[in-house]
From TrEMBL:
It comes from the Bacteria. It comes from Tsukamurella soli. This is Carbon-nitrogen hydrolase family protein. Residues 2-257 form the CN hydrolase domain. One of its GO terms (molecular function) is hydrolase activity. InterPro entries: Aliph_Amidase/BUP, C-N_Hydrolase, C-N_Hydrolase_sf.
């Protein structure tokens, strides 16, 4: 059995507070025998304070942007000193080798090594004013199995999870700073339409690809954003095994990865039963323009 944990918590520009929060959840995870912990998008340095046309941008300010850090920098090393032999996934703002370009990024690591990293591909609501986009999805061998990473808005695109499932991902970790709706926000955030979408995507992507899905999310508020929490672990049948709900916390579930895959995929196996021969228009580059034309018609 593998014990998986996932975090909903608030992370800001205060790095010392971030490290303290990480240490607190790692301590809880150790007490519960957790092998792997997912932390949210932007858990090191916080996310943007707003989105849309008035979002944080490199052009209009540097004061409110997340600190840009390198994979081999002191911030990642500090996290590694905290987590020891616990394997984690965690989000941060990555600084490219050119010293200027920023990516909304995540990595899988433990105290001694980085197993892999990812740069967010799909960008919502003006996020491209602050970050450059990534260009691909990889799957990484880790002590808990083959792990794929994606960030927030990526979960709205079935292709993102599917390509990792086809590459052998057993666990897909989705790290988010997913807020409530900006307009007509529900009084109870659990009933908010963006909370509904967040939860629906998690269950659908797990079931689509028959993988374990681990969703981490920010909680509380930062700037104009009010986060919806709901960190969760979903099994390959789309069943939620554990969740934090709206609150900050650590959701934990024991999973039998190999046994579950054998049982789930022995009958209906979605990856085996695909029909790539009829999916051509999905990947033909000239169709991109036609879809954009439709969207703006």
């Amino acid at each position: 059995m593998t014990t998986i944990g996932t975090v909903a918590a608030n992370f800001t520009r205060d790095l010392e507070q971030n490290y303290s929060t990480i240490a607190s959840y790692i301590a809880q995870a150790r007490e519960r025998g957790v092998d792997f912990v997912a932390f949210p998008e932007a858990a090191i340095g916080g996310y943007l304070s707003s989105l849309g046309n008035h979002g944080d941008t490199v052009k209009n300010t540097r004061r409110s942007l997340p600190p840009a850090i390198r994979l081999d920098g002191p911030e990642i090393a500090r996290v590694q000193s905290i987590i020891g032999d616990t394997v984690i996934a965690i989000g941060f703002c990555e600084l490219a080798d050119d010293g200027e370009t920023r990516f909304n990024a995540a990595a899988v690591l433990d105290g001694t090594q980085i197993y892999g990293s990812y740069r967010k591909v799909h960008q919502p609501l003006g996020e491209n004013m602050s970050y450059s986009a990534g260009s691909g999805y990889d799957v990484f061998d880790t002590p808990i199995g083959r792990v794929g990473l994606q960030i927030c808005y990526d979960k709205a695109f079935p292709e993102a999870a599917r390509i990792m499932a086809l590459s052998g991902a057993e666990v897909i970790v989705s790290l988010s700073a997913w807020p409530a709706a900006r307009t007509a926000t529900a009084e109870n955030l659990q009933d908010d339409r963006w909370t509904y979408r967040f939860n629906l995507f998690d269950a659908a992507r797990a079931l689509d690809n028959q993988v374990f899905w681990v969703a981490a999310n920010q909680a509380g508020t930062f700037g104009s954003l009010r986060y919806v929490g709901n960190a969760k672990i979903v099994d390959p049948g789309g069943n939620v095994l554990a969740t934090t709900g709206l609150d900050s916390g650590l959701a934990v579930a024991d999973v039998d990865i190999a046994g579950t895959f054998t049982a789930m995929r022995a009958g209906m196996f979605h990856l085996r039963d695909r029909r790539p021969d009829v999916y051509g228009p999905l990947v033909e580059s000239d169709t991109t323009a036609s879809w954009r034309d439709l969207a703006h018609a």
